[in-house]
Structure prediction request, 150 residues.
Amino acid sequence: MSNWYKTVEQHIDRQRPEFTEKEQTAHKLDLFLRAAIRIDEFASECEKCHAIQAEMLKTAKTINLVRTEKAAQKESKRIRNLALGHLRKKHGLSHPMENRLLWGCFGMAFGASIGLTYNQYIPGIIVGGVVGTVGGILRDRQMAKQGRTI
Ligand SMILES: [Zn+2]
Prediction:
């Protein structure tokens, strides 16, 4: 773990007491740190991760502003999503629950379109949703096993 990550963690931990537990969850402090760990892993060989590091550090320094300022909230969400999106696309990582949600929705849509053809709209949605979710759970487990979850 690099000094960069340690500094980010220190900034967040120093300001954490100002947050209620509910606020910590709402503003996703832990997800921010988990993303930072991963960005840190790739930063030495990935220019984009390296660039994201600078932005994450800047956000971490004044993370307590998200409690009161809409602009800070927006900015922290933007950088968090930038990091997560990049980790997904470029480094093949996923959120621990991501696939079951995604595949569940996809399954429902797919089931609905098949169901429509046979006039079995509702059963189509249900079967599609269940199959998609189960498939997604298996995929989530596989990703976790391979250490590829954020
Ligand atoms: Zn990268």
About this structure: Residues 42, 46, 48-49, 86, 90-91 surround zinc ion (CB under 6 Å).
